[in-house]
Amino acid sequence: MQLEKIVAVSGKPGLFEIVSQTKGGLIVQSLADKKRIPINAMHNVSVLNDIAIYTYDDEIPLRNIFKSIAEKGDEVISHKESNANLISFFSKVLPDFDEDRVYPSNIKKIIQWYAILSTSKFDFSSIKEDADEEE
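RESULT FIELD:
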């Protein structure tokens, strides 16, 4: 499983892996229950590998944040925690995130996605660093 093939689909809970491409869209498989569904052009699809989080200086790719959370080990909190706890946790993972542009709902979604990937036995050590972007 590669992060380049993991997507979030608007209007659908959870994360999905791209299985195939069709003439009119994609076939994706839920990471939670392994059900396959067709996705057409009407759905907004976000590839996790392409998402970045604002900091005061730059944008940090979501994959680096996942890797940072994985390195923290068992300290991961639930996405259902209070906003103050979510912000406190996220500031340990990414100390200079832009608090004006990164909302608690964004942090909640990132932690929830991380939990889904962890449950699906995603190998966070396989995430490539920024150096690969420059090639």
